[in-house]
Amino acid sequence: MSHAHSPRAGVAAKRCRRLETTKALAAILCSALLWLGGAVGDGGRAQAQSPKLTDITFSLDFILLGRHAPFYVAIDKGYYRDAGLNVSIIPAKGTAQGIQNVESGLAQLGFVDVASLVVSRAAGSTVKVVSVIYQKAPFAFFSLDPGANVTRLKDLEGLKVGSNTGSYISNIAKAMMRKEGLDPNKLVVESIEPAARIAMLATRKIPAIDFFIITKPAMERAVTDGKLKTFLFADHGLDLYSNGIGAKEAYLKEHPEVVKAFVDATLRAYQYSFKHPQEAAEIVQKYNKALNNDITVEELKIVEDLSVTPEVAKNGLGSFTPERMKTSVEWMAENGGFPKEQAPKPEDVYATGFMPAKPVLP
User: Over pLDDT 90: what percentage of the chain?
Assistant: First the structure.
């Protein structure tokens, strides 16, 4: 009997086959463990690189225009993402609606103005401003020459102005008239949708319209048979803080770190936009193709003029003082057209502690 077919050889062959099978299984198991380990490791790294973002809805004060470029710069440049936020932006038809968007919970944060906030607080709102970007009120009436040619407060008596229910600008005008002894009832307000307002002024279907001064570049291009006249309330005695970032008291209490992160990222985006207006214009146009880059650049310059004062140059973008906030609230409490007993206290309108520890200088 040959050696290959001996009993001992058969046993040896079986042992070898078992050993090889064991090695093969071990190799497969080892490979699987290595693969799983790599997958777990990669997943851990991916999770570290992309932590879960907090969803935030932010309400503008108006339809998307060039002036709002900094918020989109914050999205495009990753400022919000780096702060742990996933920000969605919704429009409004005026500051009053913007505040309502926050009050109703449609948005967690909003671009609110202090004057409208005082009135809203008097009516029961719980929204507070935590950072003031527009240090000067941008409220303005626009008219034409020849035409209504509004150049002084007295010209508001007997004037018909195009506004809308979501805008508080005409209410501010009436408050100024009341304070100066003029009859606010002689200012006639006609409701006109924002998108149609400029065209109606340019075609002389309405003698005046209210808008923020930031809209001036677009209006100048629309008027072809006269000179655009700008009546900026801040040039006629109005000393009010204006637009800034606001949220409901409950949200501020429950999510302070989220609010701080949003404020810091937004202020850095304003800083960047002021330094790179052309790039900011190109970024915001991605979100509204109808925007004109040249107009956006001009609007951002006006925004910078409203936002950067000597105090801001020292204390940082978005900063405010309790003293001037008190003045703003008291002016509105006196002239806002609501019962004085309903007037909020200054500290009811703003909240401190949400600004960056290191000021974001312009």
Answer: 74
